[in-house]
């Protein structure tokens, strides 16, 4: 590379002072430009290209233009690395690096370049507005494969006196990455950062400042050496629980360099299992204040696991003098001089509280370091430590079970892990309609992991197990956890994606009646019912592929799609207001009934019994409402007729035919009553239809104002129309008397009449 080419490249790379200035621009969501007012042609050119006047000065005008989504994302990525303290960054998008030593004109444009004392990071940024779009980066990644060696050679010539590590990162926003593209990335030693990872590091940056850089470098350069680190520490070597451990004191800054926190977060999906809670800002501030302002200290040890990699990474040299009475040994411990070689199991807040402290190099903190604990053992230790300290949240516990119990010999625990892992997959996969909607780990979302797992536990997908045996195989579980996980995850992904595609407005509505705990619970349960039905009819077999099984279920799911599309406010209200276990069951049974209406052959176990029980419950409450309404009629009609007609109210106000029917009914009842004190009067024997006839006879002067009620949707009608509700009420009343089943719709009608006549008037 010629000096001229080097100089040209240097002009496109800025250092600390200029980075701060550029960072202020990059953080804005728009571009700005100031133009002298006299440059009329230039102003016209900018306005024609979409620039808007932002502010007017004496001699200049300032214009602004919103950044496109791809530039916004690129600037967000650039700003992250600049904020993390990288010393050199590219000035703009026009950084082009030669990759052919024979032809310096062949160059590769770089979106983001970040360099510190030890490394150079190159980032290709891709963004789309469409959520969870399937990405295809074959062309870009294969191009980089042929150019990467030349790019690195050129950068080494620009910085000839430094031994630099290189890392290529594909940074994406709203894209899902295919397996083939991930393999192409591995082929060029590249890694993938999605927008979850970018957001994670931004959140860390807000919490712990520049110390986030250690976490970032640990992730990027896992296993690579940290130059010039003094790794010699006095230590005691011992055994605990069958594990080797070292006890020592160390300056916080050293541990920050090699330490890594396994946060349970989407950014760390490739490092499963992960277990730590995200660092809390307030807790971190209190630690920092305690250390710096009050000169406080923590006598309890930070617990870590050292990943020694190979036997040469960690060395312990015993001292010449040892205590003969102790099984522990004292000596010098040489820690691995590598990024992410120490996993922080307990004490992350204490450690990172020192990150910006004036005492990070002069204080020492006690550490108990286990050697090469595998991830599952780390999770167990984390859970044990936190059992009697700050409680691990229920969601985090459920998430950890996916890793902690997977290899258990206990069948019950195995299925607990399986349910958890399926929930995690659907909540964290960008190809899933439930992406970012299930609470995983410390993330709080619309759907709780517990509700999701409860549905899987209560349906027939997984059969039934006890601690020591499989009692009944399920429609998907045959004893093989991995096979069941792969097949059932796919079936449920197809199912939920189908709902999202068919009712997108309902699915994405923040107040969705579907994407709530009981809605997701019901869909999982109903799909299990459908699969059982298809198996019973021998339409499918348990060996069919998930896509084939799903395709056969669609005809039944379509009934639910139509149900959700046509759902009225009253139905939605009834589904929403049912809470707890009863609410889950009501939602699920409602979906069963919807399918059965369209497919009479669909008859899941327990539906008929549930329907009868529900209707019987409606009977009781409906009967109570009707009796109160009849009592109200008896008192209110009498009062109104007396006020209108005085002493002759009965003959003047009641139609003769109605009065005769009441007289005959009273006569029949009194003939069967022996005690005269218990005999009834004519007025006691009026039916709801009789009250309607009285209302119609005296409509305009007495009853029109308070007894008019039209069917929903009607704006006007005569007195017959306005009192039809009394006819319907009489029919329902007769059902309750003769022990016929009252439907939910009929119950709702009576409840509304009760509220209108009695409840809302009191």
Describe this structure as you would to a colleague.
The chain is of the alpha+beta class. The protein folds into 4 domains: 3-29 and 67-193, Trna Endonuclease, Chain: A, domain 1 (3-Layer(aba) Sandwich); 225-392, no CATH class; 395-605, no CATH class; 614-759, no CATH class. Helix content is 50%, strand content 15%. The chain contains 29 helices and 23 strands. Strands 16-20-17-21-15-14-19-18 form an 8-stranded mixed sheet. A 6-stranded mixed sheet has the order 1-5-8-9-11-13. A hairpin with an 8-residue loop joins strand 6 (96-98) and strand 7 (107-109). Helix 12 packs antiparallel against helix 13 and helix 14 packs parallel to helix 16 (481-502). The longest helix has 39 residues, at 607-645. The chain is elongated. Residues 264-278 have low confidence and may be disordered.
The major beta sheet can be summarized as: 8 strands, mixed
**On the 0-100 scale, what is the average pLDDT?**
86
Report the structural category: alpha+beta
Broad shape: elongated
Note the total helix count: 29
Summary of the model, kept short:
This protein has 762 residues and is an alpha+beta fold. Helices cover 50% and strands 15% of the residues. The protein is built from 29 helices and 23 strands.
Question: Which helices and strands occur, and which strands form pairs?
Answer:
Blueprint: H1 3-10, E1 13-14, H2 16-26, E2 30-36, H3 40-48, E3 52-56, E4 60-66, H4 69-83, E5 88-90, E6 96-98, E7 107-109, E8 112-115, E9 119-127, E10 133-134, H5 138-158, E11 165-173, E12 175-176, H6 179-187, E13 190-193, H7 195-208, H8 212-220, E14 232-240, E15 243-250, H9 252-258, E16 259-260, H10 281-292, E17 302-306, E18 315-318, E19 329-334, E20 342-346, H11 348-352, E21 365-371, H12 375-387, H13 394-404, H14 411-428, H15 449-458, E22 464-465, E23 470-472, H16 481-502, H17 504-508, H18 517-536, H19 546-566, H20 569-577, H21 580-598, H22 607-645, H23 649-653, H24 656-671, H25 688-697, H26 699-707, H27 719-722, H28 724-737, H29 744-759
Parallel strand pairs: 9-11, 10-12, 11-13, 16-20, 17-21
Antiparallel strand pairs: 1-5, 2-4, 3-4, 5-8, 6-7, 8-9, 14-15, 14-19, 15-21, 17-20, 18-19, 22-23
Helix pairs in contact: 2-4, 4-7, 5-6, 7-8, 12-13, 13-14, 14-15, 14-16, 15-18, 16-19, 18-19, 18-21, 19-21, 22-25, 22-28, 22-29, 25-26
């Amino acid at each position: 590379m010629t000096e001229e080419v080097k100089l040209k490249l240097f002009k496109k790379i800025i250092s600390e002072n200029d980075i701060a200035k550029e960072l202020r621009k990059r953080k804005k969501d728009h571009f700005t430009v100031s133009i002298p007012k006299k440059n009329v042609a230039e102003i016209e050119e900018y306005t024609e290209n979409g620039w808007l006047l932002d502010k007017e000065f004496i001699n200049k005008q300032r214009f602004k233009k919103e950044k496109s989504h791809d530039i916004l994302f690129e600037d967000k990525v650039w700003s992250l690395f600049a904020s993390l303290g990288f010393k050199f960054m590219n000035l703009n998008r026009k950084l082009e690096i030669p990759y052919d030593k024979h032809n310096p004109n062949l160059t590769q444009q770089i979106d983001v370049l970040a360099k510190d004392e030890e490394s150079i990071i190159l980032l290709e940024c891709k963004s789309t507005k469409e959520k969870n779009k399937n990405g295809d980066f074959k062309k870009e990644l294969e191009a980089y494969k042929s150019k990467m060696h030349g790019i690195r050679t050129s950068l080494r010539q620009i910085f000839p006196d430094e031994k630099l590590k290189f890392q290529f990162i594909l940074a994406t926003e709203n894209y899902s990455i295919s397996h083939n593209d991930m393999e192409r990335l591995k082929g060029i030693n590249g890694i993938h950062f999605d927008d979850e990872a970018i957001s994670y590091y931004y959140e860390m940056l807000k919490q712990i400042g520049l110390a986030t850089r250690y976490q970032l470098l640990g992730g990027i350069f896992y296993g690579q050496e940290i130059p010039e680190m003094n790794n010699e520490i006095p230590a005691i070597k011992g055994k605990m629980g069958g594990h080797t451990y070292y006890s020592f004191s160390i300056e916080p800054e050293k541990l920050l360099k090699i330490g890594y926190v396994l946060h349970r977060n989407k950014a760390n999906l490739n490092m499963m299992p992960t277990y730590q809670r995200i660092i809390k800002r307030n807790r971190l501030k209190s630690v920092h204040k305690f250390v710096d302002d009050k000169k406080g200290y923590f006598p309890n040890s930070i617990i870590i696991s050292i990943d020694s990699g190979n036997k040469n990474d960690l060395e312990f040299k015993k001292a010449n003098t040892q205590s003969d009475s102790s099984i522990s040994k004292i000596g010098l411990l040489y820690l691995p001089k590598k990024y992410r070689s120490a996993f922080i199991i307990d004490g992350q807040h204490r450690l990172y509280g020192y990150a910006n402290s004036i005492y990070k190099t002069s204080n020492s903190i006690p550490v108990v370091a286990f050697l090469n604990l595998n991830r599952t053992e780390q999770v167990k230790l984390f859970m044990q430590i936190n059992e009697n300290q700050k409680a691990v949240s229920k969601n985090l516990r459920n998430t950890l079970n996916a890793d902690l119990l997977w290899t258990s010999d206990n069948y019950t625990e195995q299925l607990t892990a399986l349910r958890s892992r399926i929930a995690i997959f659907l909540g964290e996969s960008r190809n899933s309609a439930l992406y970012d909607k299930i609470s995983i780990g410390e993330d709080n979302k619309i759907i709780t992991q517990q509700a999701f797992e409860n549905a899987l536990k209560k349906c027939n997908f997984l059969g039934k197990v006890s601690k020591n045996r499989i009692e009944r195989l399920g429609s998907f579980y045959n004893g093989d956890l991995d096979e069941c996980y792969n097949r059932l995850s796919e079936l449920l992904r197809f199912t939920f994606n189908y709902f999202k595609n068919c009712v997108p407005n309902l699915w994405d509505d923040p107040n969705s009646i579907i994407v709530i705990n009981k809605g997701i619970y019901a869909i999982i349960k109903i799909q299990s019912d459908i699969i059982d039905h298809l198996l019973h009819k021998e339409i499918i077999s348990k060996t069919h592929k998930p896509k084939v099984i799903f395709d056969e279920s669609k005809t039944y799911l379509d009934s639910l799609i139509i149900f959700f599309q046509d759902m009225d406010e009253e139905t939605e209200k009834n589904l929403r207001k049912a809470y707890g276990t009863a609410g889950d069951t009501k939602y699920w049974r409602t979906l069963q009934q919807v399918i059965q209406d369209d497919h009479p052959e669909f008859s899941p176990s327990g539906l008929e019994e549930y329907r009868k029980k529900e209707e019987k419950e409606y009977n009781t409450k409906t009967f109570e409402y009707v009796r109160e309404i009849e009592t109200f009629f008896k008192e209110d009609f009498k009062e109104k007729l007396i006020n209108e007609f005085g002493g002759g109210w009965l003959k003047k106000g009641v139609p003769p035919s109605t009065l005769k029917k009441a007289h005959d009914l009273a006569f029949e009842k009194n003939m069967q009553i022996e005690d005269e004190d218990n005999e009834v009067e004519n007025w006691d024997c009026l039916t709801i239809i009789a009250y309607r006839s009285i209302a119609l006879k005296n409509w305009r002067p007495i009853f029109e104002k308070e007894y008019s009620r039209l069917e929903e949707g009607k704006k006007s009608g005569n007195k017959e129309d306005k009192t039809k509700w009394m006819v319907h009420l009489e029919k329902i009343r007769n059902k309750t008397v003769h022990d016929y089943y009252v439907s939910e719709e009929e119950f709702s009608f009576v409840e509304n009449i009760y509220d209108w006549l009695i409840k809302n008037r009191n």
